[in-house]
Amino acid sequence: MRADIAELFELDPALTHLNHGAFGAVPRVVREAQDRARARIESAPMRAFRDDLPGAIAASRERAADFVGVPPEAAALVRNVSEGVAVVLQSLAVGRGDDVVVSNHGYPTVAMAVRARGGSAREATFHLHASTADIVAAFTEALTPDTRLVVIDQITSATALLLPVAEVAAAVAPVPVLVDAAHVPGALPGLDVEALGVHYWVGNLHKWVFAPRSAALLWVDSARRADVQPLVTSWSHGERFPASFDLQGTVDHSAWLALPDGVDFWHRLGGWRNVQHNADLVRWGAHHIAGALGTTSEPSGIPSAPCMTLVPLPEQAAATPEGAEALWQQLFAAGFIVPAVSFAGRGHLRLAAQAYNDEDDYARLAATLVSLVGRA
Predict the structure, then answer these.
(1) Is 147's pLDDT higher than 80?
(2) Which alpha helices (H) appear in 155-204, and where do they start and end?
(3) Residue 351 near residue 158 (C-beta atoms within 8 A)
């Protein structure tokens, strides 16, 4: 670990953290800003909720929209992508008899949310080395006359692939498209949400933008904003989107209030230069580990995400969910935070890189893996 950068966070120094993409890591200064926000509210709760929070939340929301590159009137703050998905399903009144297309690479709670409303989640299935044409075909073939929504991950969670969102959206039109962009803000350069041709887009800000957890941004295209309402009816009811999402009762708003501090930290750490550093580092780590294991780290289809990638393990290692769980526990016991992933009957590691990592982290992981799973 890079000690000069790691000391800016509150991560356990006894562990090697190679999974920033899962829950992020809140920098010390951002946690302190969140603590100050809580203290301000507690110093005069009536004044805070009645007078101060509306303007402060609006300012944070506008800062987040500016960071993502969307108009402030087009994006609402939500707690996380799961909440954003639920909001969209509610706005479309998805229920019994309705189909929603997801993918076999998608985050599982999206399909759970569809089924919880009585709908059916139909999988667009494609393999790890699929081409853009393969992925477009998988989504179009999953459509039915009852399809109400298509959900596509811009960066897949388990498999760290960068999916061709614009191409899929064009192919499934006029069916509305929701983009699960949980891993996108602060990690994917050149983002242009409005050019994707989609209808909804929601991304977490606690992963790569260093905001406290419970901060995400939901963008909605202009034709659909009037139908999008928060899950909780409270004091913002009757306001136009996105202000209608700002005040939903006496929840803890401190993550939203400290969101600008996370954006500031992202810039101080190097902004897109740091993202490129992370991308180069995770590719080096993947190549080194694959070489040690005798597997390959190079995807042969669409690209991996900038700051995350998969490394195939030797045959049979972590090939089942149970095996992946066992390897995760073994790696944790050896001092590593890195997930093992079982996908389509093959085991992988999903690596991530952040500024606090260095090449030695991946070299030590490679040596540990060889001792645990051997070579191919």
Answers:
(1) yes
(2) 165-172
(3) no
